[in-house]
Predict the structure.
Amino acid sequence: MKVLAILYNGFKAAKAEPRLLGTVENELGLRAYLESQGHEYIVTSSKEGPDSDFQKHIADTDILITTPFHPGYLTKELMAKAKNLKVCVTAGVGSDHVDLNAAVERKIQVLEVSGSNVVSVAEQVMMSILLLVRNFVPAHEQAISGNWQVSDIARNAFDLEGKVVGTLGAGRIGYRVLQRLVPFNTKELLYFDYKGLPKEAEQAVGARRVEDLKEFVSQCDVVTVNAPLHEGTKGLINKDLLQHFKPGAWLVNTARGAICNADDVAAAVKSGQLRGYAGDVWNVQPAPADHPWRSMRNPLGGGNGMTPHYSGTTLDAQTRYAEGTKQILQNYFEGKPQDPGNVIVGVGEWLPDQKCLEVLMIRCW
Ligand code: NAP
């Protein structure tokens, strides 16, 4: 079979650090395995436009491997050209770069390594909440630029203790964030999700479900977004919803950039309506140099905690998603069933409700 992987270039770093498995250079550690099984393995970072390796090779590829960090966007049109394509594997979590409706129609399975980087992201969420609330970035900028003006930093620095923190999406990552927030003695932990958590899971973290989204955001000092990108979440956080946030709230989004309207968020930070915004995901990746999230600042010069998309690609996470990708391939080649938690689209079907329940059960409590 022909296996095509779209990965990001690691250049010198990847040569020096073999654990950077998700790079073109280190090929998810799959070459020896795939070639020993008689498969052809093409690895490239070239993914944009009709002359890209992605668009050239997709025509006769059987299995496509992509990552959310350097997404190869598999549109409906591109899928129509992919005559042999049977399986798309996301090395990581979040398969919104694949047109999932078209995958159902064309009976192409979509699998991801669920859970592989959920701890990595939950830790990033904690870091992002703290750096916003404590006004870390302007303080660090003073440290490295030779300045020392404590009042300029302290006038917009707060404690997390006593604040209301809410997660939009209480799945694998959102729940882990709630768990990690418990020792911070917040005033309250809230969540907004389609489904309520099992009672014992809710009680273990002392979280309260709010069923109306506007009501939810209006009660939070900090909102963290941990829901997938789909038709119901694209642009969900926009000018209209931002008006329902507490004035001066903080917003953290490590889920997907397109869940937020980029211009509306930048304007809210600029006006101080949001005290800050942090995250590692962007609506276009790599983000253009003039993306508004690169330069936005609140009226007191802080409130920007953006980074490139890396929270789910720590070296620990790369080991897990490389191993998980190999396991998915092995299951496929050997005709074994896939872990139900890894199935986003089965053969010609959305994840059935039955499996959703199973997915719920294998979450972290
Ligand atoms: P998960 O276990 O599937 O949890 C997501 C939760 O959000 C589910 O409970 C889901 O409910 C819920 N949800 C869906 N739409 C919602 C909406 N409109 N409002 C409220 N809740 C909603 O996924 P996860 O592992 O926690 O990952 C969450 C997302 O994080 C991924 O989809 C991915 O986009 C992102 N992520 C980012 C990185 C990174 O490196 N930055 C790494 C990993 C993941 P249902 O199950 O009923 O749909």
